[in-house]
Write a sequence for this structure.
């Protein structure tokens, strides 16, 4: 039987997009405590089913697929710009295709306004009305209001009119940044992208015995399976070493590994790779928020996905891209292998190079040296930064690496960082090397 938490999530899923949700209403309709309702609504927010907006409340929104993750809903825009919804609350769940800045004459501006747009404009009431009639939402900057006719039209058409105290330039920058962040998120490969779904997953029940393991093993040639209970919740994992020498009638529950390591579908593949490499695991169960089995993910698929992403061009520039873009090899007469200039974005509040940037410099140096020795892809397992001195803004950092140990699958590199001939950092990097 489903728990109260699961019942609330199911109830929220069945609500119509755009419907308002309140803790009190959910608690009353499902006869649960307000605390239970609050926790379930927060979980629904984490899953992207609802969005909470100040002075508006919590509303049911369309759950985004990875294909359109770079599109923002009007509800998200309200949060980004600390806005106030003046009208058209029923349309907050809708996604916007693009935004238009209304800094031109009326006739010219309206040529660019289309259904699904967001028009960013000041206190021009006529423009607000025409934009709504064209099927676009309106974001009013500078803390200005609109008139009652516009608000009534927004409510009628279900297109939001939002007000923010920020100026037009700041608002455009904030929305651009949010879209850019979404593009970067879209590029990150998640477990959900490569998992073997439940219908193709082989698993055992806690009611099965060792004989059942041998039957499935004979059909699949796999050696490791999740063990579930009657509610599809993962209770353990059973592998060949567990059944070795066991009698055919022994219950699986007695020999399985209890409380196994599991992953969620929204976990990044890079994070999973680290766990699988570090723990030496070949197969992991993928679960939902209630610990129910969704499928499995194999080490082979994880490493294959990592190899693929390392060869893909990226759309959004991350901090790592910024650092490695300024990372270059030194000339043949230099004592160092690589150099990097410290830009303002790489520093902390004291104007010194940040620890995260230092870690990236170590990773890039070690990875490049390992690739020179053996072609392939690198998965960093461990970095130990055991000496560090401050390096100020607009300095040049020189890097020198030394291969300590390189095997068929693993590599170990000692990396030293210098500034003006003096050592400013020293680290040890260990990585797994993957053949292409």
């Amino acid at each position: 039987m489903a728990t109260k938490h699961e019942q609330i999530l199911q109830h929220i899923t069945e609500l119509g997009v755009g419907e308002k949700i309140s803790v009190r209403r959910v608690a009353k309709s499902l006869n649960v405590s307000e605390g239970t309702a609050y926790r379930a609504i927060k979980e629904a927010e984490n899953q992207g089913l609802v969005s909470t907006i100040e002075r508006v409340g919590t509303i049911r929104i369309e759950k985004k697929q990875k294909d359109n993750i770079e599109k923002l809903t009007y509800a998200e825009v309200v949060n980004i710009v600390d806005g106030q919804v003046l009208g058209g609350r029923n349309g907050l769940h809708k996604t916007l295709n693009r935004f238009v800045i209304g800094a031109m004459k009326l006739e010219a501006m309206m040529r660019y306004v289309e259904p699904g747009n967001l028009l960013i404009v000041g206190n021009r009431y006529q423009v607000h009305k025409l934009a709504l009639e064209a099927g676009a939402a309106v974001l009013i900057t500078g803390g200005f209001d609109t008139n009652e006719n516009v608000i009534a039209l927004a409510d009628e058409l279900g297109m939001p009119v939002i007000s923010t105290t920020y100026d037009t330039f700041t608002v455009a920058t904030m929305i651009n940044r949010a879209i850019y962040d979404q593009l970067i998120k879209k590029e990150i490969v998640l477990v959900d992208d490569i998992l073997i779904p439940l219908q193709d997953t082989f698993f055992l029940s806690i009611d099965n015995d060792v004989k059942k393991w041998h039957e499935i093993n004979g059909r699949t040639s796999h050696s490791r399976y999740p063990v579930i209970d009657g509610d599809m919740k993962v209770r353990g994992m059973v592998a060949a070493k567990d059944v070795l020498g066991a009698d055919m009638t022994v219950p699986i529950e007695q020999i399985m590994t209890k409380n196994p390591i599991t992953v969620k579908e929204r976990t990044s593949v890079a994070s999973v790779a680290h766990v699988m490499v570090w723990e030496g695991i070949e197969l992991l169960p993928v679960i939902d928020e209630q610990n129910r089995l969704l499928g499995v993910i194999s080490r082979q698929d994880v490493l294959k996905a990592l190899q693929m992403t390392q060869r893909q061009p990226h759309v959004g520039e991350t901090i790592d891209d910024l650092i490695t873009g300024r990372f270059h090899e030194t000339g043949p007469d230099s004592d160092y292998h690589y150099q990097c200039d410290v830009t303002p974005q790489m520093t902390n509040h004291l104007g010194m190079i940040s620890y995260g940037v230092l870690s990236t410099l170590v990773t890039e140096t070690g990875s490049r040296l390992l690739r020179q020795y053996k072609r392939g892809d690198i998965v960093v397992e461990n970095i130990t930064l055991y000496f560090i001195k401050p390096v100020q803004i607009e300095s040049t950092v020189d890097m020198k690496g030394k291969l300590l140990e390189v095997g068929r699958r693993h590599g170990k590199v000692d990396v030293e960082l210098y500034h003006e001939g003096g050592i400013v950092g020293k680290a040890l990097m260990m990585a797994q090397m993957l053949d292409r």
The first strand starts at residue 20 and ends at 21. The chain has a mean pLDDT of 83. The chain has four domains: 4-60, 66-187, 192-308, 319-434.
